[in-house]
Amino acid sequence: MSPVTSTSTTDTVLEPSTEPIGAGRKRRRGPVGSRLAFVLPAFLLASALVAWPFFETLRVSFFDWPGFGPKEFIGGDNYRGVAADKVAQSAIMNTVIYATLTAFGTVAIGFVIAALVDRKVRGHKMIKFLVFLPVLLPTVFTSQVWLFGFDGNFGWVNDLLGWINPALNRAWLGDPATVNYVIIFVSILQFTGFPMVIMFAALQDVPGEIHEAATMDGVGPFERARYISFPMIREAVATVFLIQLMFGFRVFDQVFVMTGGGPGRASEVAATFVWREAFVNAKFGYAAATAIVTTAVVAILSMLFLTIFRPRRIEHAG
Questions:
Q1: Hey, which of 84, 152, 245, 250 has its CA 20 to 30 A from 311?
Q2: Residue, of 104 and 318, whose pLDDT is higher
Q3: Which pLDDT tens digit goes with each residue over 177-200?
Q4: What CA dihedral angle connects 82, 83, 89 and 95, to 10 degrees?
Q5: Distance between CA atoms of 307 and 305, rounded to whole angstroms?
Q6: Rounded CA gap, 20 and 15, in Å?
Q7: Domain coordinates of the chain in residue numbers?
Q8: Closest CA to 92 of 274, 280, 284, 276
Q9: Does residue 313 contact residue 235 with C-beta atoms inside 8 Å?
Q10: What is residue 64's predicted lDDT score, i.e. its pLDDT?
């Protein structure tokens, strides 16, 4: 009995299957409908939060609408108005300058601090904490603090500069020549901690043996940072720069709190201009057209950045 049972078992095991190859793998994946069920909520959420507001803003931009009542279709008049409006153009340009300089400033200073912390200089833990702390504070709070600091009459910034040289005293936020750079300076001080943490994490993956070998060959700290650390975390630098650039294009709080767009709308940015035209001047169609133009400018600059500064992977030997 046992030989027969053994043969039968062997025949059963070795019997070729007529099931198509990969059919079991397909069944384990689940039907297409179940996979779509996981994607659909995220798609609907993205559509509700991004796509629908964008297309609604685009639609409103072709109307003259005070925010209530019927809309009057006026075609491209709002866009022609933006093209001829010097204040709107200045606001968009201020936004581009703010975003670009803030991104460069925070990433450059953040990289230097990250390299110092990575090399474990004296007090590196305290440095990392103090640089990252402002990121956790509300933007309105820090802007209010600096608003009092840069006050032309009793601000502590002028007191400090006057102690160095009395000729440096000036109304920093009341001068159209300096107001935008003061806002950029304040933003760099507050947001440098974010790229610093990202690049510090990337530097942790750089093999320490490379720095040790370079040090034994007489390579200084500056050269090691420039020719070793920076190239090896190029992808992280490019990514965090793009993130900072996107944050910069959305600037509103700092300008609204510190200057309100003044003096004489010299510090107006796209977000404050759109807010003023929509909720103060009741020109929602014109504000929507300005928002669409700003979005187009942001998209073009972002694609230009991705084309020029496309990260290159570093191939490690072995």
A1: 250
A2: 104
A3: 999 999 999 999 999 999 999 999
A4: 70
A5: 5
A6: 15
A7: 81-308
A8: 274
A9: yes
A10: 96
Strand locations in the chain (E): 63-64, 72-73
The 3-state DSSP class for residue 64 equals: strand
- Dihedral (Cα; 176, 177, 182, 187), 10-degree rounding: 90
Locate 251 and state its tokens. Answer: 């600037």
HSE, CB side, 13 Å, CA atoms: give it for residue 226: 5
CA distances from 81 to 54, 70, 71, 86, 96 (A): 20, 21, 18, 10, 20
**pLDDT one-digit tens code per residue, 284-304:** 999 999 999 999 999 999 888
300 CB neighbour count, 10 Å cutoff = 10
Residue type, 32: V
253: tokens are 């709080």
Q: How far is CA 236 from CA 129, 201, 274, in A?
A: 21, 9, 33
CA 21/CA 43 separation, integer angstroms: 33
Phi, psi of 309 (to 5 degrees): -105, 35
Q: What CATH code would you report for 81-308? A: 1.10.3720.10
8-state DSSP, 60:
H
**Model pTM above 0.70:** yes
Residue 298, H or E segment:
helix 284-308
Q: How far is the C-alpha of 285 from the C-alpha of 73, rounded, in Å?
A: 10
More confident residue, 300 or 11: 300
Strand partners, 64: 72
Q: Compute, in degrees rounded to 10, the torsion defined by CA atoms 265, 268, 273, 279.
A: -70
